[in-house]
Amino acid sequence: MKRKYVTIVTVAVLAIAALTISAGSLVNNESGNTAESIQGTWKLVSTNYGSNPSGFTDLPAMIVRMKLITDTHFTWVGFSTLDKKVSSSAGGKYTLNGNTYTESIDFGLNMDAYLGQKQTFTVKVEGDRLFQSGTLSDGLNIAEIWERVK
Length: 150
Fold this sequence. Notes:
Helix content is 19%, strand content 47%. It has 2 helices and 10 strands. An 8-stranded antiparallel barrel has the order 1-3-4-5-6-8-9-10. Strand 9 (129-135) and strand 10 (141-148) form a beta hairpin. The N and C termini lie far apart (57 Å).
């Protein structure tokens, strides 16, 4: 009887530990950001670069920037809808710790100043919007609003 009780208690403790560990690995911070919540396809809809006191500016319809985030890598590409030509691109590995998102620029087009550099941002996902802001390695302050592509 005692052995049966010990077995039940051991199984219960292991089950609780497993659930606690798996729940803790999904939520990285109080804001609810998880690796899964930033993964997907995103379209840049609005930016605030530098010290623009007037706030965010919507991207013109002829300029598109798409970002793909997987479980280990990101890539983004900017192109014109008029001539369908890529004007800039970057990609590489990333890390997400809480709401701190760090991109390693491992490759790029027209991104020479950033190649081999890490760019650290604060990110927040609200519904189908990804808010990303920070200071690039060259000192440029950026804030971007991305919308999930469905």
